[in-house]
Amino acid sequence: MNPIRLNYAGESEKFHLSVSFNEFQFNIHQTLCYNFDQLSKIHSLNIQLRYSQFRSEGNSLKMNESTTANPASVRAETLAAKQLKWSLKALLKGTLVAALAWLTFGLPAGQRDLAFKIFGGLAIFLYGMKEMTSAFEILAGERIKKIFDTFTGNRILGFIAGITVTALIQSSSATTVMVVGFVNSAMMTLTQAASIIIGANIGTTITGQLIAFKISHYALMFILVGVLMNFMSKSKRNRKLGQAFIGFGLLFVGMDMMKEVVAPLRKSEAVIRLVASLSGSVIAGVFVGTIFTVILQSSSATVAITMTMAASGLIDFPTSVALILGDNIGTTITALLASLPARRNARRAALIHTIYNVLGMLVVVIIFPHYLKVVMWFTPVEAGIARAVANAHTIFNVVNAFIFLPLTPLLAWICYLILPRTEDELYTDSSFLDKRLLEIPSLAIGAASRECDRLSDLAGQSLNDVLELIEEFDYSKAARINEREKLIDSTEGDIIMYLTHIEEKSITHEESLELVHLLHQANDLERVGDQCENIVMILTDRCERKISFGDQAVQGLREMSATVKEMYFLTRRAVESGDRNSALRVLELEGRLNFLEKRNRDEHVDRLASGECNFAAGFFFLDLMEKIEKIGDHCTNMAEMAAGASH
To answer: Tens digits of per-residue pLDDT, 109-129?
Structure first.
């Protein structure tokens, strides 16, 4: 038989794989998740931020004049990370397709049927796992948000949160990717992330313990109940629960299919030789388990297959445990891939997962014979080898947790040693929006809310600066406001896009209302930024024309400025903390702002009539009052919504 031939051609946008052997040839042409227009926009924003960095000092804003970050290199580094992620994923897909193609078409007819059954059973198992996990993610979404909000105060609570969330959604990879998203969004510290990841490793062992129960003859019953709930229930929650039942049943259907095929393989000479080569080396078993999990992207699938082979007598217990150790290394690749295009700190979070599991594996390999005795001591003889394999998985992660949980600061320190802090990190935007959180709408809404708070900070800084410009004009401060306005515009656009993605998910009525509130809030904040930019244009023109205002006009603008500044401060308090009294106070101040605007207009007319003021100065004066009053209107819009939401 001719060897398989792989031809790989990769570009930044496309991936082409050609697989050839014997008379068969497969061509795969795939365009991977590209929206380069949007990507350019994001990186253009990064370039802009490199040269327009701001830091808060008290109530005012100062410019960081010196920055050594190179925008071109930062953009190239980010693009390279994304391309590396795409290439690795493409290579994994290509390898899997090539292996499936060879096993399916390059084998004799009898062996081909076995291959179909093995991979068919594996496909059913993986599909069942995916359905169950996605259903539990939605069912437990709000609960997950509360758990992360409540239990990340210290490492013990974070550890408990990791166990709980992973037990709820039945996927440590999903939990770890979420944690990477939190760190990337600056919603979680690296030490907090470490404790949650350690807990997630224990939570994922529950799947193996469930599979070890001999309940496969109930699999069809679970599927039947799930289908009935899906077709007959009007409740979205019950339909999702039905989906979880179907997924749970399919796990055991897939397991049974693989068991039927694996048992006869004990007589195959090729399989016997392969198993013999693994039995002689723990490291070889770890390596095979790692590679298998990397390809399948599911540690639960590797555990299930290992348990199936062990229960069928195809592999012995020590080999099973070695494969399980490798499985724990392979599962870290998912988070590493997810972190490649993310910020440096998110990569550190994924690296913690890898370092933790690798160190734990090395400890167990050193004491491997004693570890096997400990597992067998915890496993009754009548429980069977499948239970022993599940226990080996659980004990490994529990022992690791006891060793490394007190050492989470050390794990974080090691990550900083491998990925040191760079100057560029100081000049990256701090967006809270992370696509990894979109799978749990309640978490994504929380991220969008925090991003709106960040947008509120930016708009507030511009308002503070522009009101100072009215008192004393400064060209450098005016330039900073204009630069910040570009960031405000792009941030609002990102929020709207993110909210649109959330809306496409399965969300509750309450979550839908929250999306509407956030959408209006982002829009009003962006309009505040627009009005600040308009005021800068008016003041710049006035300065260039050397037009001045009289004392009475200056005092009138000063009173309106103080009122709108107080309105904005109270609006932020009402929106961010749900303070209804602050919202009602904003509505009262809106009346005062309107009164001041009318009084100033009347006084201006009197000054024109008496000749104290000329028409050119009057034009600028009226225009400024109009813009300030519009900022007050946007504050009122947000306050009204906050007052309604706090009922």
So the answer is: 666 666 677 777 777 877 877
